[in-house]
Each structure stands twice: as C-alpha cells, then as structure tokens.
C-alpha cells in the first residue's frame, strides 16, 4: 500500500472478531438467591441466580433453560415473584443482597408478560440491590419492592416501593434514610393490605463489614403501605443494636407473625397479635450462622404451627417455632424457599449449589448437577493438546474440564476436582500438566493435585486447612 492511501473502514476487521464463545461446562449449579414455583403448572419453577440471570424448568428440575439472556443488562438477581392472579406476569428484582464483598449490583426491576420469554425494564435502577418483591394475590399490577440499596455507601434510593400499574410508575412508601435499606418484606395472605417490612442498616467498608446499627427494625402497615408503624419497640422484641431481620406471616392463623432477628438476644420471635407483643422462642445459633449473608423464615401455608428457617441449613418447626428438625437438603447455605400454598409438599429451594425441586416436603430433591450457573473466580489452562481448562468455583472446589472431547459433547465424566476452591489461584506445572497447584479462601490452604494418582495433598504453609 502506498503512503497516503486511505483504507476502507469495512476492511479494518478486528483480528478477534471471528472468534465465538462456546460452552465447555460445568453443569454444576451456582448460588441462587430467589426461587418461585408456578401456581398452577406443577412442574414449572423459576430461579434467579447471582451471576446468570433467570432460569426456568418445565420438568420439575430435570432440565433448566435461561430465559433472561438478551433482555437483562445485569446478571445478578435478588428477588423474583410470579403474579398469582396472572402467572404469565413475572417480576424480577436485580442485585443480590447478601452482604458479601464480591457480589454484583443490579439495575432495578424487570417484568415479563409471557412467562419469562421476553422482558421489559421497569425502572428503579438506582436501587442497586433488591431483596424482595411481593405481588397482590388478586391484582397483578399492584406490587411492592424491598430495596436494600448500595452495599458500599449511602444510597438515597433505599426502602420499600409500591407500584399500582405493574411497574410503570413507582412511589417510595417507607424510607428512613440513606444508610438503611429494606431486606425483607411479607404480605398477609388473609389480608393483603397488611404488610411487614424489615429494614437493615449495613455497609461494607474496605476493612470490615458493619452489619447492625440504628435504623434496623421491623415495620408494619395495615393500609397497603400508606402508613407504617415500627414494631421494634413493642414488648418482647429484642432491643438494639439489631442486624438483619427475616419476617413471615402465617396464612392460616390470623395475627401470627414470626421474625428471625440478629441481635444480642437474637433468635426466633413470634407474635400472635399482629406484632403488638412478642415472645422469644429460641436462641439456637444454628439460625444465626452468618446472619449478614442469609436469614429468612417461611410460614407453612397449611399448618398454623409450621415454620421453616432458611440459613446455612434448612430447619422446620411443627410446634409454632419452639423446636426444630433439620430438613434434608442437596447443598448448604440456603438462600430462599418457596412453598406451594395449595400443595405444601411441593417446594423449590435455592442455595449456594443451585436450585432444587421437591414434591415430598424435602425428603428428596431434583439434581443440582444440571445447571450451568457456576460462578468461576479464576481460570487457567495447561499446555496439553487438546488443552484442559481449570476454574475455581464459588463455594465449591477447583474443577478441571477439557477444552474439547473426543466423545462429542463434553460430559461430566470428563470433569474432575483438583482441590483448592472459592477465589483461589491455580497454577499448572508447565513441564508436567499432571501436577496442578491451587489455593482456596485465605487461610484455607494450598493443594497439590497429581493426575497420575488422582491424589490431592495439602501443602500450604499453615498445615491442615481450617474454617467452615
């Protein structure tokens, strides 16, 4: 080309433009913050993931498909609700609300009018992280949103919002300042004008997490959100400083409310008079494991004494909240639970391993090894041909997968764990790809994997790994 000759812009094709992404795995579920079942289609359920948008199953969890790609601008889901009066209408609140340093903020509310096949953004983008959405059981256009807000600083868009027109317009109906957000919201099924909202003052600083403070408390409205009364100072409710609060209302016993409260006198509290007075039922620390991360309670829709506690594990009470038994779960760190109000043994559970469906009240669950929603922190590759890929997964091990398979589709038979885990670094020996070093969370060790022996050995400078 001679000097001064111009080049047609169409000829300036970026050198990587022809490359296309392809999925290699794993089908190993990642964190799910919100779940919901279809009210009438028994085999249809939805899950909202922390890094992969919204997924739907129509075969009771045997297979899942993504229904939000292409419409959502963000991937982190904090809340999900199906309109009972019109199940084709689904609302999704973006931005998960666990107080972790490594979660992604959202961009408000999305709505689908066709069961999740297409979506429209409905505003509230500045709320950043949404904890709950509740829809009126008889009016699919009347909904309430609990917005936690910015995790790292003041955010004036915190609080509880209401829309009477399906999300076209919004009004903030509960707000106590830029430092305190809404972390839970429940509606009385017997009287949808009665709402309970939990506010939480929490913030992540570079050097620590602040998880309690002035403003954290429980509020009630008896007029659909027009006015609110604070319940935190009522007889029996724990004094401050308070942290995160989970709240639920019994659908079958009028006035019965349970609250899971993080406080000095923390635990499960119950009111049988709509929040006017409270009884401390238990201070079992199993229900306050990492309360800044999870802490929901769900009332049994048919049993007035039935209560589920969603924490590191899943617990059920059959005596009003005084004693509990552990429910079988497919994975730890439970995030959300939905129970069919008409068929209480039908439920869907979300946790750090994915979403699972049960039709026998939790005795058995669908698989979580069928969801390509794993959150991968770091990746590496070796110098074999074809090469293998390595990734450290959130709340799981570091996994090795082939870049391609001689068998056709890459299957789980070709994956294997190499030790290490969440947020860890990975290093493959350049002269011997059978040897892989990987680390885990800080303080949880360094491992050496030898593919010839399939042995994982702890080699970290601190000895055996510790922690939970």
Structural description of this entry:
It is a single chain. This protein has 468 residues and is an all-beta fold. The chain folds into 2 domains: 32-358, Methylamine Dehydrogenase, Chain H (7 Propeller); 376-458. Helices cover 0% and strands 37% of the residues. The protein has strands at 32-37, 45-49, 54-57, 65-66, 77-82, 90-94, 109-112, 120-121, 130-135, 143-147, 159-163, 171-174, 180-187, 195-201, 203-204, 209-210, 217-221, 229-230, 242-249, 257-263, 267-271, 279-282, 296-299, 307-310, 314-317, 325-327, 334-339, 347-351, 354-358, 376-381, 388-393, 398-402, 416-417, 426-428, 435-439, 446-450, 455-458. The model has no long low-confidence stretch (mean pLDDT 94).
| C-alpha-based Rg, rounded | 24 Å
Q: Which parts are unreliable, with pLDDT below 50 for 5 consecutive residues or more?
A: none
Total separate domains: 2
Q: Which CATH top level class of the largest domain fits?
A: Mainly Beta
Give the overall average pLDDT: 94
Q: How would you characterize the largest beta sheet?
A: 4 strands, antiparallel
Termini separation (Å)? 65 Å
Q: Tell me the fraction of residues in β-strands, as a range.
A: 35-45%
CATH superfamily of the largest domain: YVTN repeat-like/Quinoprotein amine dehydrogenase
Q: Give me the secondary-structure category.
A: mainly beta
In total, how many beta strands? 37
Secondary-structure map:
Layout: E1 32-37, E2 45-49, E3 54-57, E4 65-66, E5 77-82, E6 90-94, E7 109-112, E8 120-121, E9 130-135, E10 143-147, E11 159-163, E12 171-174, E13 180-187, E14 195-201, E15 203-204, E16 209-210, E17 217-221, E18 229-230, E19 242-249, E20 257-263, E21 267-271, E22 279-282, E23 296-299, E24 307-310, E25 314-317, E26 325-327, E27 334-339, E28 347-351, E29 354-358, E30 376-381, E31 388-393, E32 398-402, E33 416-417, E34 426-428, E35 435-439, E36 446-450, E37 455-458
């Amino acid at each position: 080309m001679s000097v001064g000759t111009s080049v047609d812009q169409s000829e300036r094709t970026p050198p990587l433009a022809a490359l296309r992404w392809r999925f290699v795995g794993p089908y190993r579920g990642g964190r799910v913050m919100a779940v919901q079942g279809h009210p009438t289609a028994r085999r249809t359920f939805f899950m909202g993931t922390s890094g992969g948008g919204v997924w739907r199953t129509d075969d009771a969890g045997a297979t899942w498909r993504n229904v939000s790609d292409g419409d959502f601008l963000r991937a982190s889901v904090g809340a999900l609700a199906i309109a009972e009066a019109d199940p084709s209408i689904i609302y999704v609140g973006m931005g998960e609300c666990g107080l972790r340093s490594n979660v992604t903020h959202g961009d408000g509310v999305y709505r689908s009018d066709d069961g999740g096949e297409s979506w429209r953004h409905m505003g509230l983008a500045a709320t950043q992280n949404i904890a709950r959405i509740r829809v009126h059981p008889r009016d699919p256009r009347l909904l309430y949103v609990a917005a936690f807000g910015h995790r790292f600083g003041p955010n004036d868009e915190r609080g509880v919002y209401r829309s009477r027109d399906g999300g076209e317009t919004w009004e903030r109906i509960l707000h106590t300042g830029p430092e305190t957000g809404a972390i839970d919201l429940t509606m009385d099924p017997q009287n949808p004008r009665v709402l309970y909202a939990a506010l939480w003052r929490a913030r992540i600083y570079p050097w620590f997490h602040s998880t309690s403070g002035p403003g954290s408390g429980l509020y009630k409205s008896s007029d659909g959100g027009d006015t609110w009364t604070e319940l935190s100072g009522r007889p029996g409710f724990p004094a401050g400083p308070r942290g995160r609060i989970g709240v639920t209302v019994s659908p079958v016993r009028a006035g019965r409310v349970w609250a899971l409260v993080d406080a000095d006198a923390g635990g499960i509290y119950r009111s049988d008079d709509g929040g006017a007075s409270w009884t401390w039922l238990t201070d079992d620390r199993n229900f306050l494991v990492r309360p800044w991360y999870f802490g929901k309670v769900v009332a049994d829709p048919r049993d007035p004494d039935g209560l589920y506690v969603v924490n590191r594990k899943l617990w059920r009470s059959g005596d009003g909240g005084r004693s509990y038994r552990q429910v079988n779960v497919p994975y730890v760190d439970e995030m959300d639970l939905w129970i069919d109000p008409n068929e209480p043994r039908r439920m869907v559970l979300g946790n750090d391993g994915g979403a699972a469906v049960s039709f026998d009240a939790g005795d058995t669950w669908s698989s979580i090894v069928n969801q390509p929603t794993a959150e991968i922190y770091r990746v590496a590759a070796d110098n074999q041909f074809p090469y293998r890929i390595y990734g450290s997964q959130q709340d799981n091990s570091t996994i090795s997968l082939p870049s391609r398979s001689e068998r056709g589709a890459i299957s789980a038979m070709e994956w294997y764990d190499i030790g290490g885990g969440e947020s860890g670094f990975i290093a493959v020996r350049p002269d011997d790809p059978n040897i892989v070093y990987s680390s885990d969370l800080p303080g949880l060790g360094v491992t050496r994997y030898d593919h010839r022996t399939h042995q994982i050995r702890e080699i970290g400078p601190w000895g055996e790994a510790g922690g939970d």
